[in-house]
Amino acid sequence: MVQQVTNGIKISVSSNFEGTTYRNHRLYYAFSYQVTIENQSNETVQLLERFWKIYDSLNKTEIVEGSGVIGKKPILNPSEKYTYQSNCFLSSPIGAMNGHYNMVTLATTKSFKVYIPTFQLMVTNMSN
C-alpha cells in the first residue's frame, strides 16, 4: 500500500493482479485498485474530478480524467473516509498509475489538488 497526504487529505492505494482476459482478440492483464480518501483536515471537502496517468511498460501512457470517481462526488467531513474500488487493463504485465483529484473546500469554495501517489501494477508471480 502507498500513501500520501496533500492539504490534509490522505490518499491510500493498494492494487491487485486479477488475471488475464482477451478483448478484441488481444491479451490484457487485469488489475484492481482500492483507494481510500481520508479527510484529516478541519474542513468539509468534496471530490469533484479525477485525473489519472496509467503507465503500461509496452504501451503509451494513458490519461483518464472525468467527473468524480465511480459516478460519485463524495463529500467528506473532518475525520471521514471514503473508499472505492476500480480497475484497469494493461497490455503488459508491468505498469503503474498516479494522478490527482480536484477537490473543493465547501465553506470557502476554494479548489485544490490532492495528489495520488504512484503505485505499481505487477503480475503477482513477477514480484519479489
Set down the secondary structure blueprint.
Layout: E1 2-6, E2 9-23, E3 26-39, E4 45-56, E5 62-67, E6 75-76, E7 81-90, E8 94-105, E9 110-122
Antiparallel strand pairs: 1-2, 2-3, 3-7, 4-5, 4-6, 4-8, 8-9
What can you tell me about this protein's structure?
The chain is mainly beta and 128 residues long. The protein has one domain: Sandwich (Immunoglobulin-like). 0% of the residues lie in helices and 70% in strands. It is built from no helices and 9 strands. It has strands at residues 2-6, 9-23, 26-39, 45-56, 62-67, 75-76, 81-90, 94-105, 110-122. The strands form 2 sheets. Strands 4, 5, 6, 8 and 9 form a 5-stranded antiparallel beta sheet that branches. Strand 8 and strand 9 (110-122) form a beta hairpin. The mean pLDDT is 95.
Annotation keywords:
128 residues; mainly beta; Immunoglobulin-like; four-stranded antiparallel β-sheet; 9 strands; 0% helix
Question: How would you briefly describe this protein structure?
Answer:
By secondary structure, this protein is an all-beta fold. Helices cover 0% and strands 70% of the residues.
Largest sheet: 5 strands, antiparallel
What CATH first level would be assigned? Mainly Beta
**Gap from first CA to last CA:** 15 Å
The total domain count is: 1
